[in-house]
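pinning this so it doesn't scroll away 📌
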Amino acid sequence: MTANVFAEWCVRRVNLDYHVNVADHYYSVPHRFVRAEVEVRLTACTWRSSTRASAMPRISA
């Protein structure tokens, strides 16, 4: 049985510096996603077309 995980999703465009701004924090993604729209799950994973692009710990304030 899998545990339910609360997640919020949003769409962000990757900047030229390979970063997306999520909740006033910047997270890097692979350069191949520059200028692409990516779906960001606020549990600290970024996805593009159902493929994980990057994962990192969430930065707490």
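📌 and the second one:
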Amino acid sequence: MIICLCNALSDRQLADAVEKGAHRPREVYAACNCQAQCGTCTRTILTMIRDGKPASGAGQGALS
């Protein structure tokens, strides 16, 4: 499904960028070789980043 109409970015492209380590919307756009245009999709990207972090960041701080 297309999430970003301005850049024609799909949910799979955005998820791939997050899985590869993008932690900010700017990094997601850069991984997709584009820039934010209108910003409408930024909230969705932030949600994807936040939802993706527990899986990759599980257990951080447990040894502190």
